[in-house]
Amino acid sequence: MSEYRFDTLLFDLDGTIVDSAPGVTRAFAYALKKYGIDADPDDLKKVVGPPLSQSFVDFYGFSREKATEAVEKYREYYRDRGIFECELYDGISDLLSDLKKRGLKLLVASSKPTVFVEKIAVHFGIDGCFSHIVGAELDGRRTDKSEVVAEAIALSGSGRERILMVGDRSFDIVGGHNMGVKVAAVGWGYGNAEELAEADYIVNAPEEIIGLIGGTPDAGTKRERI
User: Fold this and answer.
1) For the whole model, what pTM was predicted?
2) Catalytic sites, residue numbers
3) 3-class DSSP state for residue 201?
4) Which of 75, 152, 171, 191 has the greatest number of CB atoms lying within 10 Å of its CB?
């Protein structure tokens, strides 16, 4: 039996590992411009995290067919420019290295296409921390967070009671809970207080995750739902 409460962690990418808002919002604004819609990238943080096609539908009234087309417009900007218009959050690289040294299994579980997640992980030199990187398919398959989490669970080989999902939006929380795992919401991402309130735990700094899983230092300001 592991000394830790959880021995496997599934990490969301956008808003959890990287601040990807600059690239995502600029690419989204670029796509909207193709349809005659002017949008300020600073006002588009709401689209960071959810599946892109869903955001075109929910926020701009696109049909499913038009949203699929818009995602391709988005990628015209994102695949070469926007993908690297992001930064690692302070303390994340050290956290991942620490968890890896402790022998925990780490996986990425993101709604972003796997190919983009892999490139970002390599760009920041953190790819070696993860046993698997699970994302969506470019053709639109596996964009729902529950499907992503389910695939990550299967690849991890761990029991659900030993798995912790770490994310910043309601999609991460719902996806984790739908698949029967506990969820820690991070306070440095894009989720608001109402979204985070549905998580099992809340952490406000990367190092608090060490305490949450049962390591040291202690977890500082974390909260467990009753």
Assistant:
1) 0.89
2) 12
3) strand
4) 152
